[in-house]
Amino acid sequence: MNPSTSRPMQLRDLLATAVLCLPIGAAAQTSANVRPLSLDQCIEQALQKNLSIQIDRIGPEIATFNLESSLGSTYDPVASFSLSERFSSSPGRVDAATALRSPPSENYTDIWTPSIRGTLPSGTVLTLSGNLTRSSGTSFPLGFQYVDSASLSLTQPLLKNSWIDANRLNIRLNRKNITISELSLRLTLISTVNAVQQAYYDLTFAVENIKVQEASLALAEKLLAENKKRVELGAMAPLDEKQAESQVAARKADLLTALREVDATQNRLRNLLTDDYPAWSSVRIQPTDTLMALPQTFNVLESWQSGMANRPEVLQARLDVEKQNISLSYSYNQLFPSLDLTASYGHNGVGPTLSGALNDIQGGMFQSYSYGVVLSFPLSNRDAKSRYASGKANVAQSLLRLKKQEQDVVVQIDDAVKSAQTSYDKIDATRLARVYAEIALEAEQKKLESGKSTSFVVLQLQRDLTAARSAEIRAQADYNKAVAALRQAEGTTLSKAKIKVGAK
């Protein structure tokens, strides 16, 4: 063996062993855990197990509970019941004429007061109440005395708190929050599905790129073997053999890089598909879909219209404007003075027995009623005026946020359309570049065989061919990724994937 070539030969053998052992070892460890998956299967898995989706799927449920809470606290009738007993004693009175003292008195009074109170959507407060008093003692020598009453009263705001109040404000805002939380879920679904698509296309490219790097390594090893024979025959300088050995080592390093890229992309996709990463850490996802460049028609105006109608961010911004207008309506209402209409009507009864007192109420012999208005207002009203001014500023701010969001969507769609069109055009360009690179390498190899070229030129053309093959696959993956990104920008990711949005 030539001493000058022993170390390069040893280095080459070590690299070859490393490259061969890594894939074989990985395959031996994970062959039982290879899981072939199509893109649709990956999306379905993500819809079920992705943690971000699971988190935001609870949002509409929470918002619904908040609405039910505000409805209950406002409109659920409230029943109350009180029971009390009172005792009083007093000394007898002194007659001024006779200076005689009357005997002292001791009286007992038991009071029962039931009531039920409720609020109507108009803001009217209704109260149905009753009162039963039983008195006994020295002041009632015949026994017990029963006094009872039943009445219905109402309070109706006429100005302040008439068409809206704090409770009705919360109800209307909570209704909007349900829709906002549903849009938030939709946004997460769109983002996650797009992320799965991007990762799947990257993984498909990475797997195909390994084949390209393996073919490149095979070409470099074939040239090295041929150069060795030429050196042994004296038809080539030893330097050309060293150049070929260097190229083999470089191609092996490129293959290792490609293998690492597959692992990194696998991790990215696994993280999107599961809520239990340790259980999936040993699973090797095998893409079953091939990269296809289906021609599509791109229309930026139609995409803009779709984005304005479907993007969750735009719809959320519009809802925020509506919420600010509702709050402004409440702030405006609070500028008015409080003017409440009050009215009540009831029946009264009295008797030595409970049944007699109740009969009086039922018969309606003794009635009572009242009506009137209550007016109150702050002297300066600075608080309400300041809140109203703040509300108008919030509306103006929310309108500007909406305008900015719409403009951002327009720009994103414009960029996405141009990116998709450019990516499609690159497919033909990279295909032609790969074809010409193959032709150039084949011609240069024939020239090398006839002694009219050098190993250096052939090695350079091999590198060019590898880059062209990789670029062709990359262009196909980038086109599919660009189309997916355009669907996300339009807000049509879910409809194109035939996914129906639900809170659960």
Summarize the structure.
With about 500 residues, the protein is of the alpha+beta class. Helices cover about 65% and strands about 20% of the residues.
How are the secondary structure elements laid out?
Blueprint: H1 3-30, E1 34-37, H2 39-49, H3 51-57, H4 59-75, E2 78-90, E3 105-119, E4 125-137, E5 140-157, H5 166-233, H6 238-273, H7 277-280, E6 284-287, H8 300-310, H9 312-333, E7 338-351, H10 354-363, E8 366-376, H11 382-449, H12 455-490, H13 493-496
Parallel strand pairs: 1-6
Antiparallel strand pairs: 2-3, 3-4, 4-5, 5-7, 7-8
Helix pairs in contact: 1-6, 2-5, 3-5, 4-5, 5-6, 5-9, 5-12, 8-11, 9-11, 11-12
Core attributes:
504 residues; 2 domains; 8 strands; 18% strand
Can you describe what's shown?
This protein has two domains: 33-63 and 171-325 and 394-496, Outer membrane efflux proteins (OEP), CATH 1.20.1600.10; 79-160 and 339-376, no CATH class. Helix content is 64%, strand content 18%. The chain has 13 helices and eight strands. It has helices spanning 3-30, 39-49, 51-57, 59-75, 166-233, 238-273, 277-280, 300-310, 312-333, 354-363, 382-449, 455-490, 493-496; strands spanning 34-37, 78-90, 105-119, 125-137, 140-157, 284-287, 338-351, 366-376. It has a six-stranded antiparallel β-sheet. It has a two-stranded parallel ribbon with strand order 1-6. Helix 4 (59-75) runs antiparallel to helix 5 and helix 8 packs across helix 11. The radius of gyration is 43 Å and the shape is rod-shaped.
